[in-house]
Specification:
heterodimer; A: 107 residues; mainly beta; 4-stranded antiparallel beta sheet; 11 strands; 50% strand; B: 118 residues; 7-stranded mixed beta sheet
Chain lengths: 107, 118
């Protein structure tokens, strides 16, 4: 199975900060990497698919980059609604696997 | 807008079968791929498997011997059965839609917690 390692596991940031979360795959997955936002008790939300494509309706402050084994999710200017857990998922091959998540908290 | 809602018993005894249903509302279940994903408390997400509404399935090898997924298009529901459960199967279970077939999920349910305990 492809292992997905996310870092950091948590971070504290202020509104307006630029936030970067990384995801590393244990082997090359081309651009088959997706990012989600999850708030406790709510349905996870797709933010970015195939590494850099913004899902319809997702604010443009979210962006994704990377290919091969190293990927990044960037929030250009953190907003109050963005405090949540973010996780990555590889869709290169089954079984699909997920990163451990990054909890973004208010500083 | 389309919504997914998981339902089923919150408590299952060890060695018994866990049965969950995902109901699709405000949209059709047909012609999409549907997955089950779970998250044990304090741990990462685990993909259980997916099925297409034609009936074709793809299960995680780690669970394949115990998993069955099915769909009822007349009820707009798809289901998960996991046999011979143990405490390790305690988790929040999510259903999710794969709109494109490219193994990522554009729509999720809120999840339903399942505890395996006697």
């Amino acid at each position: 199975d492809i292992q997905m390692t996310q870092s950091p596991s948590s971070l504290s940031a202020s509104v307006g900060d630029r936030v970067t979360i990384t995801c590393r795959a244990s082997q090359s997955i081309s651009s088959s990497l997706n990012w989600y936002q999850h708030k406790s008790g709510k349905a996870p939300k797709l933010l970015i698919y195939t590494a850099s494509s913004l899902q319809t309706g997702v604010p443009s402050r979210f962006s994704g980059s990377g290919s091969g084994t190293d990927f990044t999710l960037t929030i250009s200017s953190l907003q109050p609604d963005d405090f949540a857990t973010y996780f990555c998922q590889q869709s290169d091959r089954t079984p699909l696997t997920f990163g451990g998540g990054t909890k973004v908290e208010i500083k | 807008q389309v919504q997914l809602q998981e339902s089923g018993p919150g408590l299952v005894k060890p060695s018994e079968t866990l049965s969950l249903t995902c109901t699709v509302s405000s949209g059709s279940i047909s012609s999409y791929y549907w997955s089950w994903i779970r998250q044990p408390a304090g741990k990462g997400l685990e993909w259980i498997g997916r099925m297409f509404t034609s009936g074709s399935t793809n299960y995680n090898p780690s669970l394949k011997s115990r998993v069955t997924m099915s769909v009822d298009t007349s009820k707009n529901q798809f289901s998960l059965k996991l046999t011979s459960v143990t405490a390790a199967d305690t988790a929040v279970y999510f259903c999710a839609r794969d709109y494109t077939g490219w193994y990522y999920f554009d729509l999720w349910g809120r999840g339903t917690p399942v505890t395996v305990s006697s």
